[in-house]
Design a protein that fits this description.
The chain is an all-alpha fold. It contains 11 helices and no strands. The protein has 2 domains: 95 residues, Orthogonal Bundle (Endonuclease Iii, domain 2); 113 residues, Orthogonal Bundle (Endonuclease III, domain 1). α2 packs antiparallel against α8 and α9 crosses α11. The mean pLDDT is 94. The chain binds iron/sulfur cluster (SF4).
């Protein structure tokens, strides 16, 4: 594993290990469909707004599953999703995705668990509102596949520490996966997000207290300027 990445993961485990463990046990309790719904809603918004939208959905649907979403009115879904923005298009996607899961998977995506990773990703990518990140979150969170979903924080950290110079989602994912134990991808995904949010921030990264500031090629201690 890359020395810098190893140091970052060790630091993050120490700093955020408890939060991550708690989050992982929540992940395990949620259904695959709920992950899919949350991830579609999370596009272009923050998790606070996603939580509000999910609470609204629970209020009107009771349980969130393909059948309740499919039979809900578009108007009700739009009202529930309003706090998360792009609510008209996201409501439409949810209804279409629910319909496909009922029609093609008998209401449950578990069948994908038995497909090879690339094939399962291909199936997910055909669904409306599902891009690479959403598909990979489902593969990693729900089916424990050795896939590391890349979000904006992970992309930034990987580029800054010199692990990749690419902007391509898939190239960054493959590069990072070479360095991570396939059984630890979910944990590494969460630790790197927290490191990016708290230390290697988009603006004003905390290079001064960063555990890799003596080796990171982007450290502002080396004269780089993030303003
Ligand atoms: S030294 Fe600065 S740029 Fe490099 S990883 Fe740490 S916070 Fe990010």
């Amino acid at each position: 594993m890359s020395y810098i990445l190893k140091k970052i993961l060790e630091y993050s485990e120490e700093a955020y290990g408890d939060i991550v463990e708690k989050f992982i046990s929540e992940v395990r309790r949620k259904s695959c469909f709920e992950h899919l719904v949350s991830t579609i809603i999370s596009q272009n918004t923050n998790w606070k707004n996603v939580r509000r939208a999910i609470e609204n959905l629970r209020k009107i649907l009771g349980t969130i599953n393909p059948y309740t979403i499919s039979s809900a009115s578009l108007n009700d879904l739009e009202k529930a999703l309003k706090p998360a923005g792009l609510y008209k298009v996201k409501s439409k996607w949810l209804k279409e995705v629910a319909y496909i899961i009922i029609r093609d998977f008998n209401g449950c995506l578990d069948r994908l668990k038995y497909l090879p990773v690339d094939k399962a990703r291909e199936v997910l990518l055909k669904m409306p509102g599902v891009g690479f990140k959403t598909a990979d979150i489902i593969l990693c969170f729900c089916f424990s596949k050795p896939v590391l979903p890349i979000d904006t924080h992970i992309k930034r950290v990987s580029r800054r520490i010199g692990l990749t110079s690419s902007s391509s989602y898939d190239i960054i994912r493959r590069e990072l996966e070479k360095h991570i134990d396939p059984k630890e991808v979910l944990k590494a995904h969460l630790l790197l997000i927290l490191f990016g949010r708290n230390i290697c921030r988009a603006r004003n990264p905390l290079c001064k207290i960063c555990p890799v500031n003596n080796v990171c090629p982007s450290s502002f201690l080396r004269g780089n300027d993030f303003r």
